[in-house]
Specification:
This protein is an all-alpha fold and 119 residues long. Helix content is 71%, strand content 0%.
Length: 119
């Protein structure tokens, strides 16, 4: 049985879900606005889809042991090439939250009982 999720895991999940939806809308807007000539909109579209999938996974009970993947927050930061300032902030906040030991242990699937046994 998985321990209770830290509040910051829920915060990461919500931020990734909301920012994923916003990123898809930005990607579609850029694509239509530039008549599909500015190609980085594809990166934003793929990032939005990945963020929604990851955020949905973290919202449920499957977050314990889901892995402490830093790929999506880093992609949010890179998405500044599409003038996505909200994604930049979300990426930085997610990286800071994921670096905290209690969040990292929860996402890696390490419970407090296992940590006490290692000592």
């Amino acid at each position: 049985m998985a321990p209770a999720a830290p509040g910051k895991v829920q915060a990461i999940a919500i931020m990734q879900l909301v920012c994923g939806i916003q990123t898809i809308l930005v990607a579609v807007g850029i694509a239509i606005g530039t008549l599909f000539l500015y190609l980085p909109w594809v990166f934003a579209l793929v990032l939005g889809i990945m963020a929604i999938v990851r955020g949905s996974k973290l919202m449920g009970s499957g977050a314990y042991g889901a892995g402490n993947s830093k790929a999506i927050p880093i992609m949010f930061i890179i998405n500044i090439i599409n003038c996505d300032a909200i994604g930049l902030v979300v990426g930085i906040v997610c990286l800071v939250f994921q670096a905290e030991p209690e969040v990292a242990d929860y996402l890696d699937g390490v419970s407090e009982m296992e940590m006490e046994m290692d000592v």
